[in-house]
Amino acid sequence: MAKDQYLTPHQRGIVQRYYANEDTRVVQRLQELASDLYLATTPAQIKRLWGTVEKEIAKTNADPREVAKVLEAKDIKGLATILAKPGLSVPRKTPGEQPRRAPVGEEDL
Fold it and tell me: What digits encode the pLDDT tens for the residues 3-19?
């Protein structure tokens, strides 16, 4: 938000709830993208959807090696398997902390 921006208590509550439910939003968006990929008919649609999946899945705590394999193979069933795992979520950020995202496929050192 911009410096010295004023929000009413009601607006502040809306913004806080929006970010409090980020993990649910991202996982649901990925599930919708998997459905859209299954139904996509043109190569252009498929390419665009996989690009969006790559951006959204980078926000989650999914295993980077597993994600890299799925993205490389463009495997919809593999994507669905990742999304079905019970621990999939978006890591919480502390105020002022910048998100740290490793490139997809980069192994832990």
Answer: 667 889 999 999 999 98
